[in-house]
């Protein structure tokens, strides 16, 4: 394969930030890959992995650079997708992730995750500055960035908290805009999938102009993107657009631990036997009677040749617990999930800079953007545990007669509620970001010093609205009907007095408008969030004097940051105490709970919180030696002290260095650091959720008690602490190997005090066993002054350990085989040796998820790119691949007759294999004129389907959309 050839024959991976070539086919002259400050100019180079801004500086932290050319060649409607394909990024979100979610608020949120540590541990910057979060976890949405003006993206693969502060545990992704762009350029693009859906449109425009002899510069951009997404399919196993890869694969628990056969079975076409599309009697003597769309009863076809047991357990003879295999699959709800959320982006950006003195500028930027998304979480609203009275007038006469014959007055019932339609979730994120700053260069004591000072204010509004979803308690009232004075009405007189309208759920007849209005009012679940971020930052960098091996470079600065959020939700979900008949929008209803949680899903809560951060840092670059005999080496060190208003003071640091060996072009580098992630607004001030636990076991008194579970934030949380270690070797600009760049880096991260949530039982037991003393303050099960309660909170309890290897290389060949053009080869790979999570709970065993393809950390992941370009056209080929893996390393795979005893920590399973995947993308450009370029691109050329998964699919690794076609025109004048 082309990709394999590029890796084995030509070591071609882009290097660390100061070593990486921009991926561009240059024909004028062979490219040089120089260290920062050594590229043939005297200009200072800003490197994202450091605050040092100085000629000749070499940062030790590996960083991948993605240039404009690669961004354009990948031809994605959202730059997020191009960056997220890098192997070191594992677990990033995007429009294909969280599509099954109703309440997370993260649908369509484009956020990066380095090293598989999650978006909350990856710091995403715009021009080296923080961006207000688009979610209460504090992570920004890259879809809101001004994408056409991005000239470079630096991905720092290593801890950078000493340089940039909290969240930079996995690393940093820094988007660098072209602040000096002049002219007018644009991009118009369209796309569609091979299945005729996911239509895409993108229009981007940017302009730049200088005035006053270049002292005044203005840059503006605007863009609109529309991705229709891929909606849910029908019930059963039919996906949207005729996609046929979904098989309702399920991990079935046999509940047998030591009979010689595996406890878990991975099987296709699994059919739950406690509901169907239009209703099923699930237990008792009438078990197995189902209803068609017209409401007619028929005998349900169980898979596995199953027959109903006819008893109160609801078991089916010949089937597995909860599932049969095959049979009538029409009621399965998973096919209703959106494969990709629809997303609409509107982005405007402007920057005005004035050079008030040579190399000194004051500037202001405005970024106003909006992103709207829509997804369908699942098909219908599944209710498997209902009870229907035989006397209900909606029950067919034949079934009523069967009830009488069997001597029963009611029966257990389950339905997908297909007749009620499908829930839709709409999000609307609006960002208003303003920056005012000054930066430049001033002479101090005979040397030049750079400064960078700015104030940033950002506000993000996020609206989440859910439509077509039931109020569960009203639904429960509406389905219980009686005949009164010749009319069918709700059985409960109190419910009737409060507007209850009877609902027939035996079959698929469309409900009346009045019945729908009662159980699904127009004012559905909603959440309104406002987040603000204010940052004041001042940084200096310079070289105060020369030492024996070169100048000593220093950077120092201070920053203040304030974060705030407030979230307001609808009364049905959040709970209110003053519902009254006079409230036309939310009238009082005894059927509803005044403390909220009335919706089938989407029970958002009210909350607010704020914290502030004060910090200062210093960083130095100390040259050690510089000679032809031993080479050139430096030490880079930094320290930062940070004071959080919620958790106090914490120190971060890094110590690293580079050594340019006497062998020209060869460099050794390494860095060790202490990094932090402070608890975010959601973890500190989570909107409370209250649940009643009627029979909660109190181990202190050995009795069951009634307790109230309060899910709340924990203001006593402290920062997570990470130890990062990275070391490796880099090759660039070697005269004995022209055009080749190569780096290999080992990394290790040990993250402790990881913030993780605990259940009510865990909290009480950890206190009872004296394992976690802090948990004892979170409950009172013998409360003499009020109800017993348990505050379910997050604690600094877990840990994560991961280590692996990054390989990155590139090769540029001018006039290959005498052809008029340039061949550029590039490849990047990450090998995750281990990714061990310890939840810190009593009796649990640390779990290594490296190679578990149900997650986002495969053993190997690589990206290879080949580009051939001339003055007239270019050809682009890209391969994406990750290795075969397992469902989970905790499983013991075995076959019937040979299985050991299955345990909680090591359960047995019949099939623990989950394949990797290989995707090829191809594209090309043609210059219609010197200013106009047409291009086309095909992603997932072979239309590779995702692997079977017990959880529908894994969009974090696999392509769930299929082959995509894109074409467009770029222009620049």
TrEMBL record:
Chief place of localization: membrane
Give residue ranges for domain TonB-dependent receptor-like beta-barrel: 413-941
State what protein this is by name: Outer membrane receptor protein involved in Fe transport
- Whether rRNA-binding counts among this entry's keywords is no
Q: Which SUPFAM superfamilies match?
A: Porins
- Do you know which PROSITE patterns this protein is assigned to? TONB_DEPENDENT_REC_3 (PS52016)
As given in the record, the signal peptide range reads 1-16
Residue stretches making up the TonB-dependent receptor plug domain: 58-172
- Organism equals Sphingobium xenophagum
Could you confirm whether the keyword Transmembrane appears in this record?
Answer: yes
What the record says about family reads: Belongs to the TonB-dependent receptor family.
């Amino acid at each position: 394969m082309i990709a394999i050839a590029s890796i084995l024959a030509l070591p071609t991976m882009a290097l660390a930030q100061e070593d990486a070539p921009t991926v561009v086919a240059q024909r004028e002259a062979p490219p040089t890959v120089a260290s920062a400050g050594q590229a043939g100019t005297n200009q200072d180079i800003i490197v994202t992995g450091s605050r040092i801004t100085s000629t000749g500086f070499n940062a030790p932290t590996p960083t991948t650079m993605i240039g404009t050319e690669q961004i354009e060649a990948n031809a994605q409607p959202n730059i997020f997708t191009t960056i997220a394909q890098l192997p070191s990024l594992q677990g990033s979100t995007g429009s294909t992730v969280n599509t099954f979610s109703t309440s997370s608020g993260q649908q369509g949120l484009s956020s990066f995750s380095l090293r598989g540590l999650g978006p909350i541990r990856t710091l995403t910057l715009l021009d080296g500055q923080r961006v207000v979060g688009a979610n209460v976890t504090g992570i920004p949405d890259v879809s809101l960035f001004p994408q056409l003006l991005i000239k470079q993206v630096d991905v720092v693969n290593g801890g950078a908290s000493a340089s940039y502060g909290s969240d930079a545990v996995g690393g940093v992704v820094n988007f660098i805009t072209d602040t000096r762009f002049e002219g007018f350029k644009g991009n118009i693009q369209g796309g569609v999938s091979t299945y005729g859906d996911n239509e895409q449109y993108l229009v981007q425009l940017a302009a730049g102009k200088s005035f006053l002899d270049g002292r005044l510069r203005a840059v503006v951009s605007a863009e609109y993107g529309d991705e229709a997404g891929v909606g849910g399919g029908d019930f059963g196993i039919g996906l949207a657009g005729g996609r046929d890869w979904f098989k309702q694969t399920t991990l079935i628990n046999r509940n047998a631990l030591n009979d010689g056969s595996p406890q878990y079975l991975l099987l296709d076409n699994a059919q739950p036997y406690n509901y169907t599309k239009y209703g099923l009697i699930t237990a008792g003597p009438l078990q197995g009677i189902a209803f068609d769309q017209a409401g007619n009863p028929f005998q349900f076809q169980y898979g596995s040749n199953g027959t109903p047991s006819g008893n109160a357990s609801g078991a089916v003879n010949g089937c597995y617990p909860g599932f049969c295999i095959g049979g009538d699959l029409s009621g399965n709800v998973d096919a209703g999930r959106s494969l990709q959320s629809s997303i609409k982006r509107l982005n405007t950006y402007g920057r005005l800079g004035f050079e008030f003195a040579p190399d000194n500028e004051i500037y202001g930027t405005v970024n106003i953007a909006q992103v709207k998304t829509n997804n369908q979480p699942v098909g219908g609203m599944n209710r498997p545990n209902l009870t229907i009275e035989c006397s209900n007038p909606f029950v067919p006469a034949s079934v009523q007669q069967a009830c009488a014959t069997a001597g029963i007055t009611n029966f257990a019932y389950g339905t997908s509620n297909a007749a009620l339609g499908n829930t839709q979730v709409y999000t609307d994120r609006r960002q208003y970001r303003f920056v005012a700053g000054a930066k430049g260069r001033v002479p101090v004591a005979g040397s030049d010093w750079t400064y960078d000072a700015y104030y940033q204010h950002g506000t993000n509004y996020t609206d989440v609205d859910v439509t077509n979803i039931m109020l569960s308690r009203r639904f429960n009232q509406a389905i219980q009907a009686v005949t009164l004075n010749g009319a069918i009405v709700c059985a409960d007189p109190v419910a009737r007095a409060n507007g209850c309208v009877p609902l027939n759920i035996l079959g698929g007849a469309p409900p009346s408008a009045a019945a729908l209005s009662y159980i699904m009012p127009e004012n559905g679940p909603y959440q309104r969030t406002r987040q603000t971020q204010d940052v004041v930052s001042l940084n200096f960098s310079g070289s105060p004097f020369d030492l024996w091996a070169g100048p000593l470079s220093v950077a120092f600065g201070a920053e203040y940051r304030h974060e705030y959020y407030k979230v307001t939700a609808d009364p049905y979900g959040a709970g209110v105490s003053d519902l009254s008949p006079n409230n036309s929008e939310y009238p009082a209803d005894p059927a509803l709970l005044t403390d909220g949680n009335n919706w089938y899903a989407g029970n958002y809560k009210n909350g607010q919180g704020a914290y502030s951060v004060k910090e200062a840092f210093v960083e130095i670059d100390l040259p050690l030696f510089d000679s032809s005999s031993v080479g050139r080496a430096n030490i880079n060190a930094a320290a930062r002290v940070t004071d959080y208003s919620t958790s106090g003071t914490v120190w971060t640091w890094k110590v690293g260095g580079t050594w340019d060996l006497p062998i020209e072009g060869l460099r050794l580098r390494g860095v060790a650091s202490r990094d932090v992630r402070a608890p975010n607004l959601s973890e500190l001030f989570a909107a409370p959720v209250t649940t009643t636990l009627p029979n909660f076991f109190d181990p202190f008194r050995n009795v069951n008690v009634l307790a109230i579970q309060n899910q709340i934030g924990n203001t006593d949380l402290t920062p997570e602490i990470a130890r990062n270690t990275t070391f490796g070797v880099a090759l660039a600009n070697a005269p004995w190997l022209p055009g080749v760049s190569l780096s290999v880096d080992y990394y290790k991260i040990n993250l402790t005090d990881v913030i993780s949530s605990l259940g009510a039982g865990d909290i009480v037991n950890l206190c009872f066993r004296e394992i976690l003393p802090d948990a004892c303050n979170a409950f009172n099960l013998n409360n003499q002054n009020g109800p017993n309660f348990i505050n379910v909170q997050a604690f600094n309890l877990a840990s994560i350990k991961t280590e692996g290897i990054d390989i990155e290389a590139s090769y540029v060949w001018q006039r290959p085989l005498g052809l008029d053009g340039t061949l550029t080869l590039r490849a990047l790979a990450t090998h995750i040796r281990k990714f061990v999570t310890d939840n810190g709970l009593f009796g649990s065993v640390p779990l290594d998820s490296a190679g578990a393809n149900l997650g986002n950390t495969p053993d190997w992941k690589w990206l290879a790119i080949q580009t051939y370009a001339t003055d007239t056209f270019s050809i682009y080929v890209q391969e994406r691949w990750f290795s075969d893996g397992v469902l989970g390393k905790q499983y013991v795979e075995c076959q019937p007759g040979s299985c050991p005893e299955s345990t909680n920590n090591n359960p047995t399973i019949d099939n623990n294999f989950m394949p990797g995947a290989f995707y090829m993308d191809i594209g090309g450009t043609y210059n219609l004129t010197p200013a106009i370029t047409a291009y086309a691109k095909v992603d997932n050329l072979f239309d590779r389907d995702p692997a079977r998964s017990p959880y529908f699919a894994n969009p974090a690794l696999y392509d769930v959309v299929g082959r995509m076609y894109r074409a467009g025109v770029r222009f620049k004048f």
